[in-house]
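Z., the sequence and structure:
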Amino acid sequence: QVQLVESGGGLVQAGGSLRLSCAASGRDFSKNVMAWYRQAPGEQRELVANITGDGNRNYADSVKGRFTISRDTAKNIVYLQMDSLKPEDTAVYYCYAETRIIVTLWNYWGQGTQVTVSS
């Protein structure tokens, strides 16, 4: 059974930092895309950042230069370092991982972790 377990969320003041972690179990995602999404109240879930098995990274424009995604392939963990946080970063952050078996794409989600940035 695949599980993605996030940790590291919390309450922080504007300008502060948080580091999210997502530990995956049940499948090796080292060669696959892992990502962080977020969803604010009343908003659609949006991509924050992703990282491929080759280590290529993509970021939403709103977080470029402030957030850094990384991964420890040996431990099957993906991180999101969030610096210079703004109140508009407040959301539930979800870990995402995918794997492809022949032609079928399987995707997995964590349960989410709340990040609240106060002004």
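The CA atoms of residues 71 and 78 lie 4 Å apart. DSSP finds no helices and eleven strands in the chain.

Let me know what you think.
H.
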